[in-house]
Amino acid sequence: MEFGLSEEQDLLQETVRQFVSEQCPPTQLHAIFDAGEGHAPALWQGVAELGLCGLMLPEEYGGADLEVLDLALVCEELAYGGLPGPFMMHSLAAHAIARAGDSDQRGRHLPALADGSAIATLALAEGEGAWRPEFWSTRSEGGVLHGTKRFVPHADLSDWIVVGLSDGRLALVEKGAAGLTVVPEEGIDRTRPIGRLEFEGTPCEVLEGDGAVLERIGDVGLTLLAADAFGSASRLIDLAVEYTKTREQFGRKVAEFQAVKHQLARLALEIEPTRALFWYAAHAVDHRPDEGPRSAALAKSHISDRAIQAGREVVELHGGIGFTWECDVHLWLKRIMFDRAFLGTPESLRERCAELEGW
């Protein structure tokens, strides 16, 4: 079986990569990272004009009605360029509304989410990192929410928040709603700042979908995080290759040393083959639902683990400057650290795989 990308998908990736390289060079990325807001309105407007905000939304609401693989390919390119912003969580939240909302809710919310004029995010985790509903306590009673959610990306920025409930359903909360408190939390990746949300009798719209929708959103999210980690690791390897070709030691370029050549080659061989993991996970989530949960969990756990190790070695290949704030390396390494932790660590996801297999 030959499993490759279509011409349209190749063009999609080329278009996104060109946009990011032109609109978000490392100098601008450093400035956004230093500011800590994780958002640049001009960049978000550019993403919206490319039609990326509604990539998986139905055409009747202004979306492109594409599949998880297409969205994962975009996430790979955005990660390669280090683009800050709410794109991934916005896409997941919009997809949740499209899947779980009734016709009225879809009609009221999806057009603005598709064109980027409104931003959404996803609020799932509770406690120290409980990502599944059996460990949640947030509940909806009489149309109001009670509970606390943590590690919510771009919590302050988002116009709409899709909240996971303890019964496996989802609820929609508007920015500034009564009883909603947003408390910033310290996060590792300044391109995706996080916050804690406290709901005390907060008005909400409960979406119709059952627990199956929440499970799908989780699988899609794991796949996108895997793609993001892959794109970030690829960029780090390219940074290492570029640096070792210019750095001189003992009168020779560092890249000429046999040990460095071997290390770079091994890094490439450890990362590049994992591309197939998130490709297949994306395909399975859409077309092989029995394999989707396991494939998504394996892709995210394995790619994020390999990407973290690659990041550490790239720091070493940059020598003393690899640890400094001014060096580009930490921008992508911290992005990978976010990907590794969000929606579950590799260890917890492997346990999940074992449970799915009945081990």
Kindly describe this structure.
This protein has 359 residues and is of the alpha+beta class. It folds into three domains: 108 residues, Acyl-CoA dehydrogenase/oxidase, N-terminal domain (Butyryl-Coa Dehydrogenase, subunit A, domain 1, Orthogonal Bundle); 91 residues, Butyryl-CoA Dehydrogenase, subunit A, domain 2; 145 residues, Butyryl-CoA Dehydrogenase, subunit A, domain 3. 52% of the residues lie in helices and 14% in strands. It contains twelve helices and ten strands. A four-stranded mixed sheet has the order 1-4-5-8, covered by helices on one side. A hairpin with a 2-residue loop joins strand 2 and strand 3. Helix 1 runs parallel beside helix 4. The longest helix has 34 residues.
Number of helices: 12
> Which of globular, elongated, flat, extended, rod-shaped describes the shape?
globular
- CATH second-level architecture of the largest domain: Up-down Bundle
How are the strands ordered across the major sheet? 1-4-5-8
Entry summary:
With 359 residues, the protein is of the alpha+beta class. The protein has helices spanning 7-23, 26-35, 41-49, 68-81, 87-100, 103-114, 211-244, 258-271, 275-287, 292-317, 329-341, 346-356, and strands spanning 120-123, 139-141, 144-153, 160-164, 170-174, 180-185, 194-203, 205-206, 248-249, 252-253. It folds into three domains: 7-114, Orthogonal Bundle (Butyryl-Coa Dehydrogenase, subunit A, domain 1), CATH 1.10.540; 120-210, Butyryl-CoA Dehydrogenase, subunit A, domain 2 (Beta Barrel), CATH 2.40.110; 212-356, Butyryl-CoA Dehydrogenase, subunit A, domain 3.
